[in-house]
Fold this sequence. Notes:
By secondary structure, chain A is an all-alpha fold. Helices cover 68% and strands 0% of the residues of chain A. The longest helix of chain A is centred in the N-terminal third of the chain and has 31 residues, at 38-68. Chain B is built from ten helices and seven strands. Chain A: GO terms for molecular function: nickel cation binding. Chain A: Its main location: cytoplasm.
Amino acid sequence: MGADAALLLLADSRLPAGGHAHSGGVEEAVRLGAVTGTGDLARFLRGRLATAGLVTAALAAAACELAAADDPADDPADGVELWRRLDAEADARTASPAQREAARTQGRLLLRTSRRMWPSAALDTLARAVPEGPHHPVALGAAGASAGCTPRQAALAAAYTSVTGPATAAVRLLGLDPVTVHRLLADLAPALDDAAHAACASLGDAARQGRWHALPGHSAPALDLLAEGHLTNPMKLFVS
Amino acid sequence: MGAHHDDLHDAAEPDGRALRLGIGGPVGSGKTALVAALCRSLGPSMRLGVVTNDIYTTEDADFLRRAGVIDPERILAVQTGCCPHTAIRDDIAANLDAVETLEERFGPLDLVIVESGGDNLTATFSRGLADRQIFVLDVSGGDKVPRKGGPGVTSADLLVVNKTDLAPMVGADLTVMSRDAAAVRDGKPVLFTSIREDRGAHAVAEWVTDMVDAWRHEHGEPHHHPVHGAAQQAQAS
Ligand SMILES: Nc1nc2c(ncn2[C@@H]2O[C@H](COP(=O)(O)OP(=O)(O)OP(=O)(O)O)[C@@H](O)[C@H]2O)c(=O)[nH]1
Ligand SMILES: [Mg+2]
């Protein structure tokens, strides 16, 4: 069940939440010559989905569950504490400071947009809990819950945006055939479903108590290095 | 902040905040030169903030900082991922974030100027980002440009045609430009400038001053109010 149409809005690249200015490491990979065409782009996207994509999907699912459990009758201080802990889990799974910064910038902008689109007490609590901006998947999951999406749908949106943003960036930076690149994304569709499924399976039933240590923590050192290297590029077009 | 009266970041909420002025136009027409000129002319009497949207990182922001026309901390640079018009029109989130960060750090401000990345004739600012907008052309693009129209030329609150000092060299006929612009602008103002010769762009500064006065008259004295989390944190650190 869940809100299918709201999911489409949430995952749409036209969602005005600043995502268009992030390449997810692709700009730096292009600069270094690691991504030069559709072949290595396909490998890049698959690797990104299997690591950062899966982790963000799980965090989004956890955030969606937490937001859905938000009860206005509860002590607001408890809500703030839980959101801070979930955001800290995201921090712990993001080794590169540059990537943390980019994730918080995107999360802050998404929170700003979603609070106007789908106002809710949970989003207000999240904004209060992490005033500098929560990690993007945390904001995405909370926004999903406010829009009526299920944790699985939030996870799917996170997995989806983890590859579509970089794919679009590659089209712009390398002048790739956009249909070829969308074919790559179509080929990834089953893997996106699998990632959303795995993300939800990792939640367990401890999440409601704020115990998220079982969430996946796959690292991708190459993405970390790309994120750090990107900051040193004086000619960069994308934020990350 | 209670959950129920929390602000929803409604960018259209104009009361008690600075006028937001967008400055757009094609690459190299003199947008940054105009921002610098306005800072020179208006800086002494107004509290200013500037947001730049460079194609490549912080070129414009660096130029303004070097020019010494405004406290460097009052300039923020936004990156636009190959799509300068997206950042000022379709997805203004990063620009709003920058504007509100300036207001939060240095507010209350009287005027926040947002310079767009150099773009094409169709690029205009969303009303969610800019309350008023200036479109800057230059004569060296050819005197046909106003005739070609496009939303920037036809709908901007003020059209500036810059680099009039170059007109004789490029064979641009200012009378033609003036006539063509008037024909598509439905009475809205057009000003011709040479920022090279008039480093304060005084006619434009006067127009902006009128806009700021009218804005304040309509929406009240700008006052300081916490807008969003980023700024709160930035201020605290
Ligand atoms: N001759 C002449 N040159 C000018 C004038 N105004 C600006 N310039 C020059 O034109 C060049 C471009 O000016 P900028 O202010 O950087 O133009 P811009 O529109 O901000 O450019 P982008 O941000 O790159 O799109 C610079 O070399 C300026 O010195 C003018 O009135 N006359
Ligand atoms: Mg400029």
